[in-house]
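re: ur msg from earlier - yeah i can do the NAP complex, just paste it... oh wait u already did. ok heres what im feeding in:
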Amino acid sequence: MIPRAFIIGWPVAQSRSPLIHRTWLDELHIEGAYEHVALPPRELDVFLATFAERGFVGGNVTIPHKEKAFAACPVTTPTAARLQAVNTLWMEGGKLRGDNTDAAGFLASLDEDAPGWGKTLEKAAVLGAGGAARAVVYALLSRGARRIVVVNRTRARSEELRSRFGASIELVDPGDLASALAGSDLLVNATSLGMAGQPPLEIDLTPLPDHAIVADIVYVPLETALLAAARRRGLRTSGGLGMLLHQAAPGFAHWFGERPRVTAALRARIAADIEDKR
Ligand SMILES: NC(=O)c1ccc[n+]([C@@H]2O[C@H](COP(=O)([O-])OP(=O)(O)OC[C@H]3O[C@@H](n4cnc5c(N)ncnc54)[C@H](OP(=O)(O)O)[C@@H]3O)[C@@H](O)[C@H]2O)c1
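and the outut:
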């Protein structure tokens, strides 16, 4: 039987993961499969307990299952334990294992798009305090960010983030955004604002210093209004597609035995699919 991997989510049809993994399977001439599994929350526990019997070797986890899947894993990586959420599952030694590759994906993407960005990182501003923002904050701390200012609509959520990561996190209300941007070496949008079908993200980038880098982890559209505004100001930018591609690679290696590469051809193929379906 060929190895089969899944992506579980609810909904999940919009996911680009199957296209990414099928492209790698083709490129590497590996006989394998990667399938969407639309899974309502009430079916998660049974699915996780039985997927191996159903012929799956593991898979990806997306909203809303990341936290519950973490809780179901007897073994997780230190990153997943810190984030209390998994996006990648596999079986090893008869046990379900979980990792969270969003943080590493974010860092790999930024390294690619803005080489050297981490060398001068004193202050970063992160918009959002959801699951993705948690991974971004963890990633920035792992690269030595001294101050991270989190700006989020719901205060309780940003407070939860600060209690998780401690003293280097400062909280700023959206009304004081200018103070968060002033002196920031890096701005990251980790909200869903600006994503197709969501309200726009409308912010004034004037307070950012001229050397600042602007990253947006939203990848539909590929060029968000935030990235376009940053480019107009002459700032370096990094979009969400790179994170999506890089977070996928470790799972592929677990399921299919070979570490795939994030190439320009893969990027172009997924970008074209995103453009076509808009
Ligand atoms: N590139 C990638 O590989 C990648 C990976 C993961 C996620 N993402 C993207 O990251 C984004 C966030 O994902 P997530 O998993 O963190 O989602 P989430 O846990 O639902 O968090 C959503 C965040 O957006 C904020 N938000 C939503 N609507 C808002 C509004 N109308 N006004 C102000 N703030 C609003 C939320 O603020 P409140 O706390 O106030 O609700 C929260 O901070 C999504 O666009 C997702 O596609 C990209």
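cool cool. The chain has a mean pLDDT of 96. ping me if u need the other ligands too
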